[in-house]
Amino acid sequence: MCEQSHSKAKTFEKKFTLAEFFNAHWSAYSASPKAFITPEQYKAVNALRICRTSKLGKDRYRCKDCGYTAEIYHSCKNRFCPKCSWTDTLKWADRVYDKLVNVPHRHVVMTLPHALNPLIKLNKKFFFDTLMSLASNTMKDYILNQYGVEAGVISVLHTYGEKKNLHVHVHMIVSWGGIDKKTKQLKSIPVKKHVGYLDLKETFRKGFIKALIEHYFSKNLKHHFTGENEFNHFISTLEEKHWIIHLEAPMNMPEQVIRYIGRYSKRACLSEYKITNIEGEYISFRYKDYKEKDANGKPIEKELTLHYRDFFPLLLQHVPLPNSRLVRYYGLYSTKTKIAQAFREKTKSNDSGQKVIAFTDTKVCIECNGQMEYLDTHASKGSVKWFVYMKKELKKHAEKIAA
């Protein structure tokens, strides 16, 4: 493993893909893995390797005006895939635009101490669920008690740090305002209002330690403690640890918030544009070192080079758990909350109606801007895409017969 710094700002283009590195070395690694490979990790790697290739099939479109034909390869739609997660992130940010009410919003981050990492590896579901619910409720309850406002929280779980080490934290978009408890009207919290940072941190720390103790004594916690005394000593060290909460200043609605949160949503743990080199059995990628700052106070960007036997287990520990939700909605933004809908519809008439993120439209010809029409689908027989396509074709055939 080696590291080096980038002293000058550069414009980086995507030149390498994770798929090519996995294709070159996955067979050798999986035959003798450094860490146990779970079924969902196998599934994620297999999906990543065939994403947007002929193995998943393609759709064909033709321009009605100039006759240009375009082929769009199918995507794997796996949450671990950097190609699919980036597109999903953009679409997610677009959907969130329609959810947010017209009040300022804050970006809040709550992080678990690294001392918990050994336990997290054994109890991922418990720690992830507890972190997301406790962090969101900490913010939601604080705003309700301090300002008499029901706020909305959108939480996004991240399990990785810049160097792809285990670094469990939650990014939250918190409405700095909401529905007033008394008047039932939309109300913003004055930006200059004091925020009890220490109170929030203490509530978060105490709440998590309490949940951990309850989980231990209910005999549901997987651990390597020799007994209750050792566990109690561990809890004492946790209480002395520095629990990190980061609150950014409120941002105005809606464009500023959407552009910002798009960076923190459902992206994969390693964006491919950060890969700087793939050479033989080694891969290099850029990361920010927050412990070293430049003259402007910004983290220095460095490069990390790893052998595939170190890189694969490092990356695979961040494959999402099956059926887990990495993005969750609380309070005003919960799907169970109906009262916010009226305020969202009321504020939509005041904006431009323009989406913040634009997507590639398969209906528009890249040659003449004419209208593209769908021709057909090609997929490998027996694949998921093939079954979906055949189901649609059979439905069309049945409709023709019925007509």
The global form is: globular
Largest sheet: 5 strands, antiparallel
Spatial strand arrangement across the major sheet: 10-4-7-6-14
- For the termini, the CA-CA separation is 67 Å
Strand content: 15-25%
Query: What is the string of SSEs from the N terminus onward?
Result: EHHEEHEHHEEEEEHHEHEEEHEHEH
CATH architecture of the domain at 101-253: 2-Layer Sandwich
Helical proportion, percent range: 25-40%
What is the CATH top level name of the domain at 101-253? Alpha Beta
The poorly predicted ranges are 5-12, 346-360
What's the pLDDT, averaged over the residues? 84
What is the number of strand segments?
A: 15
Number of DSSP helices?
11
Task: Look at the helices and sheets and give the structural class.
Answer: alpha+beta
CATH topology of the domain at 101-253: Alpha-Beta Plaits
Computed CA radius of gyration, to the nearest angstrom: 24 Å
Task: List its traits.
single chain, 403 residues, alpha+beta, Alpha-Beta Plaits, five-stranded antiparallel sheet
What do these coordinates show?
With 403 residues, the protein is α+β, with helices and mostly antiparallel strands. Helix 1 runs antiparallel to helix 2 and helix 5 packs antiparallel against helix 6. The protein has a domain of 153 residues: Alpha-Beta Plaits. The chain contains eleven helices and 15 strands.
